[in-house]
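The pair is set out directly below:
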Amino acid sequence: MHQTVLLKIALVCVFVGLFLLYIFSETIEIDDTAISKINNAESGEKIKIIGIVSEVYSSDNAVFIKVTKAETAEVVVFKQINENITINYGDVVEIIGRTEDYNGKREIVADRIRKVK
């Protein structure tokens, strides 16, 4: 008898906790980062940029995008992340990702990308 009551209480607490996490996760937002500040960001830091695609080129497992907004940032999008989106020159995109160093240069590895317009 006591075990079933404890199980019910535990399940209710789990579902209430998951619901609250979902509600709070909707309110968390990453501020737009100026491209000039990317070089000063810590490696692995989460950032968000919005800009115009000025160049797109592709390799076997990644797409490389140059995004311009007063300055230019290089963004790497691994194909398994966004296989259903087509990015073209002139598109306005919002990119959320993390900063990484590659061959001595700072770049953004995209976790999420979407067209704004």
